[in-house]
Design goal:
The complex is a heterotrimer of chains A (272), B (790) and C (83). Chain A has seven helices and eleven strands. Chain A is α/β, with parallel strands linked by helices and 272 residues long. Chain A has one domain: 3-Layer(aba) Sandwich (Rossmann fold). A nine-stranded mixed sheet of chain A has the order 2-1-3-4-11-10-9-6-7, sandwiched between helices. Chain A has a two-stranded antiparallel sheet with strand order 5-8. The mean pLDDT of chain A is 96. In chain B, the strands form eight sheets. In chain B, strands 13-15-12-16-14-17-18 form a seven-stranded mixed sheet. In chain B, strands 31-33-30-34-32-35-36 form a seven-stranded mixed sheet, sandwiched between helices. About 2% of the residues of chain B have low confidence. In chain B, strand 23 and strand 24 form a beta hairpin. The longest helix of chain B has 21 residues. Helices cover 33% and strands 24% of the residues of chain B. In chain B, helix 1 packs across helix 2, helix 9 runs parallel beside helix 10 and helix 10 packs antiparallel against helix 13. Chain C has a three-stranded antiparallel sheet with strand order 2-1-3, with helices on one face. Chain C starts with a strand and ends with a strand. The chains are: A alpha/beta (272), B alpha+beta (790), C alpha+beta (83). At the A-C interface, helix 3 and strand 5 of A face helix 1 and helix 2 of C.
Chain lengths: 272, 790, 83
């Protein structure tokens, strides 16, 4: 598929607020990116017209009840059939921040046995108990299952910002070890928080900014094409968005966030 | 009062009529009391005369409308009134001192100033940048979370109210010391720590939820804020200049959009008094408004869509005074009248009386004027965004405000009356405080002093607050409030508003409440200098200013005396710096049982930078680079943090030589444009020593400075050199390769090479006799700076 | 029949509850000897159902489908009939 033919759907509802910059970043990659209200996609049944689906960051429905859950239930009630077909066809489905919370609440991530009717994980209130906006270091730990990070060398460290109050990735305590094993088995771990020296954060604040279990920042589905992450690649897309670009003289053209979005686009080019 | 002065009209809803004819002063005051009006006796007399002339009774809706429109909050009577001072009469502070700067400078880049909900300056010829800063002190004192959140929500609506898309928020907060003892608080007064955490959470919650980055601000602590906290909320937006629709015509529909109308924010004492109500209604009406940022987020989307499609002819937000001021002011602005049916306004609570609907300050509502041919499409846009919108009336040729409820007329007011309240006349007299310059021995260990200063609350890192605000959403933040790995304090934020342009905006602020205790004139001058130099330090120029006064009761000549002095400084300093005021707001009557608020003037500065890739940050970049101090150092420590630490308040307030300052600013800008500046930091609280330390630990590099090389007006002791707060100064890092060119650019400006950057992670100052007077490790400095507000 | 259900949602035991811990710290700061605080959320749900059993079944389903995430949340509820 030619890049210029690729259509990215960035879904939104009331309270979504990272849609604009996400669309701008995708457009910079030479694909078409549209921001459309979820109600309209439901009404028009237009999901199959797109090649990539992004659930962007924000505070959908005020994050009432739990972050992302009301939006997840809207999708579950009215869009599930189209969405599951979209996923099964291998299209990329990306959840960033609030979008990751939605994918977890929807049961699509980790999705050990396909979509589970109830969430198998949670993104709980940060261990610090506060909303926090800061840049973090992440290690790409995926062994190749997630097609979107293939252009990032394995074990490479990238930087992106997080900004959330509920990003502490958790498994049910009694299943923690077993679930983690399954993540490894199916190569679902993608990004983990690390310290400046490159070693895993081991829960240490602020390198692991929210207290996530096993320093988990992003995971994918067993098939690899559903990917959720707390950090914001669209805010680390250009070099001038870096927190310390003034130490490099002129800002570099791009930041690390571009690698991820580019990986998504390249996957579609290859696959379809 | 004769009871028959207030009677209920025979209509199927609560409506009261007031017979003002022949009412004496005492009766007027009783009427005012019974209706909970804030009008003065003189204003009540003017109303009596007006209705006597008409030969009819006034309705409660009419009196409440006048009460709102003439209030200090809506009309700014003090700033527009006549003020008698010992030096003569000032005919309007706003006109004489604030607006006049722009009127005389006539900058062609000021697009709309002091006219609309926000000031608008040109950005790139095609776009305008809108900016507004509001106060929300009283609501935040009652309910810190809700008050601060709705303050943010309100100022965001001011930006929407000029058709601009909000791209950044600012916040400046003042509290009593967090270690204030509970026992020292008067009964019922909330503890500074409680107010602090509530306000911070409220601001973060609203901005974060709406997806608007909070990029600049300050937090200040002083005893004078224990009884009166100060909450300034600012917002910046961008709009295509040809989308600035303000061309309302008779026949255009008045559309109320957004949240429902409830009892939120309706003023205190009301009809609840027993002789007036048949049923004993609930007495307390919430003065606090409930925030709902998601409602406003949807409203924002709809408004931007309506703007982009060119469907509206006018817009304004609903703030103080609710519908009454929004409808009245827009009609007045366009030389029209208006007819409104209150019965169709969507309500949260069906029991609201007409006057309550009319003045309710429920949040998340906007008023739009839509020409009839666009109405269907506009309503469709609101529906698509899931926003409730209602046509409540239309603008008319007849310049009257005619309000209906269920088709009964409940108010019929001449707009001329509404917008020509009797002018207030106040007296002002400032008396200099009785202070003297302290005499004390220089402390033996200045390293210890520096560490204590870094951890004093007004200097210490605000990271624990700043990180709870999303400062990166929208992906436009080029220079962030906190710099790099060590979260150093940048002087200003830089944003890149447009995807296809390198042009940026620079946002900074200045505030020196403690200087005002010595002389409000130099407080204002210093705040302006600080705001502008913060802007210049990162690469900003062509600076526009906003003034936000928070003062005590202006009816007290001493309070007003200080205000007049500060306003005069605004005119003189801003004129000399060539920086016009484009918007402002005042909050007066900030008094509590502990006395008046510490008089506070916040100056917000909005500059532009032609290419964001030239922006400069605070962190030292390379060992071996040279350090230059720009500007002259005087023994000006009267209101300094150093004196405060030592327990003094002196007389030697920092002054501003605006001509010299302007030259320094211009040259520094030139040096930045020539890529000669590696790092730059303005000198403010804590002076040279604090600025140098911040640059060092922000960059993870050490430095050494020779105090003997500092340019001074007269010989000074080492501690005074280290900690003086003289204005218009910068510490600049320059690579040795660029040193001679930098010095050439700076020729004519007072400056000197004072030191260099070290690989070794220590900060060293050598005193006048070459003696090492400060020697501290970066980790100790950073730890001191970070520990206080963790 | 009309019912009112009061649903309490709280973090499962064994999970750290940052809000509770922060609140406990603040209370201790005020001089109270507080050994711990747990925060729950309360929902008051008004609903129609054929019978109390039916109402209980519905509310339980609501809890599982929306009001809780079984990974971390526990819930309980009380149901009252309304006249």
């Amino acid at each position: 598929m030619r890049r210029s033919e690729i259509r990215v759907l960035i879904l939104r509802v009331g309270g979504t607020n990272c849609d604009r910059e996400t669309a701008l970043a995708f457009r910079d990659l030479g694909v078409e990116a549209e921001v459309v209200h979820t109600h309209r996609v439901i009404r028009e049944g237009s999901l199959p017209d797109y090649d990539v689906l992004v659930f962007p960051g924000g505070f959908s429905y005020g994050d009432y009840v739990r972050s992302g859950v009301i939006w997840a239930k809207l999708v579950e009630a009215y869009l599930l059939e189209d969405l599951m077909r979209f996923v099964e066809e291998g299209h990329p489905v990306i959840g960033i921040c609030n979008g990751f919370q939605l994918l977890v609440e929807l049961g699509l991530l980790p999705g050990f046995e396909g979509r589970s009717p109830y969430p198998e994980a949670a993104l709980a209130t940060n261990a610090s108990n506060v909303y926090e906006c800061r840049w973090v270091r992440l290690k790409n730990v995926n062994r190749g299952n997630c097609p979107f990070t293939r252009s990032i060398p394995r074990e490479a460290i990238i930087r992106m910002p997080v900004a959330h109050g509920e990003g502490r990735f958790l498994f049910p305590r009694e299943w923690e070890e077993e679930y983690l094993e399954r993540l490894y088995e199916k190569d679902q771990l993608v990004l983990r928080y690390v310290k400046p020296d490159g070693s895993f954060a081991e829960g240490e604040y602020p390198h692991n900014p929210n207290g996530s279990f096993h320093d988990i920042a992003g995971i994918c589905s067993p098939e690899g094409n559903v990917f959720g992450l707390m950090p914001h690649p669209e805010r680390a897309y250009y070099g001038w968005q870096l927190p310390d670009w003034t130490r490099m003289g002129r800002p570099p053209e791009y930041g690390d966030g571009r690698l991820i979005l580019e990986g998504i686009v390249e996957y579609v080019e290859r696959r379809f | 009062m004769k009871r028959e002065r207030i009677t209920r009209r025979e209509v199927p809803f609560p409506l009261y009529e007031v017979d003002l004819a022949g009412a004496g002063d005492e009766e007027l005051l009783e009427i005012k009391e019974a209706l909970g009006l804030g009008l003065s006796l003189e204003e009540m007399r003017a109303l009596r005369d007006h209705f006597e002339g008409l030969g009819r009774r006034a309705t409660d809706v009419e009196l409440q409308t006048v009460d709102q429109t003439w209030s200090e909050h809506c009309f700014h009577k003090t700033f527009k009134g006549l003020i008698e001072t010992p030096e003569g009469v000032v005919d309007g502070l706003l006109k004489t001192y604030i607006r006049r700067v722009a009127e005389e400078l006539r900058p062609d880049w000021c697009f709309s100033i002091f006219e609309d909900n926000a000031g608008i300056v040109d950005f790139d010829g095609v776009h305008g940048i809108a900016i507004k800063v509001e106060t929300h002190n009283h609501p935040s004192a009652i309910d810190p979370f809700g008050g601060a959140a709705t303050g943010t929500g309100g100022v965001i609506r001011d930006i929407l109210g000029v058709w601009a898309d909000p791209i950044a928020c600012t916040d400046v907060l003042c509290f009593g010391p967090l270690d204030t003892r509970f026992e020292d608080l008067p009964p019922g007064m909330k503890h500074p720590r409680f107010l602090y955490s509530g306000v911070v959470a409220g601001i973060g919650s609203y901005g974060n939820n709406m997806g608007i980055p909070t990029v600049n601000g300050a937090i200040y602590f002083d005893e004078g804020y224990i009884g009166n906290i100060v909450v300034y909320c600012g917002c910046i937006g961008i709009l295509p200049k040809d989308r600035y629709f303000r061309d309302v015509k008779a026949g255009d529909a008045i559309v109320l959009a957004g949240g429902r109308t409830g009892r939120d924010g309706i003023h205190g004492v009301t009809f609840a008094s027993a002789e007036l109500t048949e049923e004993s209604e609930e007495v307390s009406r919430p003065a606090v408004q409930i925030p709902n940022p998601i409602e406003e987020e949807k409203l924002k989307r709809a408004i931007i869509q309506i703007r982009d499609e060119g469907l509206g002819s006018g817009i304004t937000d609903l703030g103080g005074g609710g519908l009454s001021s929004a409808v009245g002011e827009t009609a007045h602005r366009y030389g029209l009248g208006a007819e409104v049916e209150l019965g169709v306004v969507p309500l949260k609570d069906p029991t609201l009386a007409p006057w309550e609907i009319w003045i309710s300050e429920s949040q998340e509502r906007m008023l739009l004027a839509i020409p009839p041919k666009n109405l269907d499409r506009a309503m469709e846009v609101f529906e698509e965004e899931d926003v409730e919108a209602t046509v409540i009336g239309q603008y008319t040729k007849r310049r009257r405000l005619r309000i209906f409820y269920a088709a009964h007329i409940v108010a019929d007011l001449d707009l001329g009356l509404l917008f020509t309240p009797p002018r207030v006349r106040r007296r002002a007299e400032w008396r200099p405080p009785r202070l003297q310059e302290p005499r004390f021995e220089m402390p033996p260990d200045l390293t210890e002093t520096l560490l204590s200063l870094l951890s004093s609350p007004n200097i210490a890192s605000k990271e624990s607050v700043v990180r709870t605000y999303d400062h990166e959403v929208q992906g436009r933040t080029v220079i962030k409030p906190l710099q790099g790995e060590y979260s150093g304090p940048n002087d200003a934020a830089v944003l890149k508003p447009l995807p296809d342009s390198w042009r940026g905006i620079v946002v900074s602020c200045g505030m020196n409440p403690r200087y005002g205790k010595i002389d409000p004139y130099w407080m204002a001058a210093s705040a302006i200098d600080e705001a502008v130099r913060n802007n210049v330090a990162v690469g900003g120029r062509r600076v526009a200013l906003l003034d936000n006064f928070t003062w005590g009761n202006p009816e007290r000549p001493d309070r007003l005396g200080g205000l007049v002095r500060a306003a005069r400084a605004c005119y003189e300093i801003a004129s000399a710096l060539g920086t016009p005021f484009v918007s402002g707001k005042d909050s007066l009557y900030n008094e509590s049982p502990l006395g008046p608020v510490t008089p506070t003037l916040l100056i917000t500065a909005l500059g532009i930078i032609p290419d964001i890739r030239r922006a400069v940050t605070v962190d030292l970049k390379r060992p071996g680079d040279l350090l230059y101090l720009l500007g002259e150092t005087h023994p000006e420590l009267g209101g300094s943090e150093y004196y405060r630490l030592m327990g003094f308040l002196g007389l030697s307030v920092p002054k501003v030589d605006a001509v010299k300052a302007r030259e320094t600013f211009t040259r520094l800008t030139e040096a930045i444009d020539r890529d000669l500046v590696e790092a730059c930091h303005d000198l403010s609280e804590g002076g040279l020593a604090v600025a140098a330390s911040e640059m060092a630990f922000s960059g993870g590099l050490g430095l050494e400075v020779d105090l003997g090389a500092v340019r001074v007006s007269s010989p000074m002791r080492d501690d005074l050199l280290l900690f003086s707060e003289s204005n218009s100064r910068f510490l600049v890092e320059v690579s040795p390769d660029n040193a001679s060119e930098f010095e050439r650019v700076m020729e004519g400006v007072i400056f000197s090479r004072v030191g260099r950057v070290l690989e070794e992670r220590r900060v060293r100052f050598y005193g006048s006799a070459g003696r090492l007077v400060v020697d501290a490790s970066l980790s100790d400095l950073l730890e001191a700076w970070r520990s206080t507000l963790r | 029949m009309r019912f009112k259900a009061t649903v309490y949602v709280s973090l499962k035991r064994g999970y750290s509850d940052p809000e509770g811990e922060t609140t406990a710290r603040a209370l201790r700061g005020l001089g109270y000897s507080v050994s711990g605080v747990r925060v729950s959320k309360v929902y008051e749900v008004e609903l129609e159902a054929e019978s109390r059993e039916e109402a209980e079944r519905l509310v339980d389903e609501m809890c599982r489908r929306l009001l809780t995430n079984p990974t971390k949340d526990d819930y309980r509820f009380e149901i009252r009939e309304r006249g």
